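Protocol step 4 of 5: obtain the predicted structure for the target chain.
Materials: sequence only (see below). No template structures provided, no constraints applied. The aim of this step is simply to have a reference model before the mutagenesis design in step 5. Sequence pasted as it appears in the construct record:
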Amino acid sequence: YKIDSPTHFFLGSEYLVMQEEYWNNTLNKYNEKKGILITTGGSDAHNISPEILKEIVKTDYLVTLIVGPGYSKETVQELHQLKNNKTTIMIKPNGLKDYIKNSEYVITSCGSTVYEVLSQESIPIIFTLAENQKIAYNYFRDLGVETLGQYPNIRYNEIIQIFNQPQKMHEHKLSELYKTIDGKGALRVSSQIIQFLNSI
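Step 4 output (structure tokens):
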């Protein structure tokens, strides 16, 4: 970042600004996580979610798939054709926190949702959809997060292999990341802004 005084920079996971539902982030250690959550964000222009679902319906996992407001009718129709009796399709939910918190795995593009997944101590499986996601993708991959590749070279055939690894192996690799994201970044940033304004 170009430092131009009096600009202040609040960088790192400590200052990560997340939605309000994550601010009071008390996890219930006895909460049983089940199944897989799939989300590509508000839209799915490249029709990624049907390709992911094609793989997961081969397993016995419970699946929740999030359909954002920008999904085409054709994609939604294809998802309904692919779903089985263990698949739930959620249309435009108000938030993702409860879905993330209750899922064992979350398959997501490498945007802000990855931090939300880590804050809820679920296991992310990531891919990229855009050029601006590549730096975060490489960063998380190097820290042990499971990856499926970068669009258009997403490796859908590796999804089941990831599920077949012991859950404890995933949790061991992610344990340090879980500790670094507590959802309170917005509160820290606002506190710093108030201190700065009071000092003027």
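Step 4 remarks: The helical segments are 48-56, 73-82, 97-101, 113-119, 134-142, 159-163, 167-180, 185-199. The mean pLDDT is 92.
Proceed to step 5.
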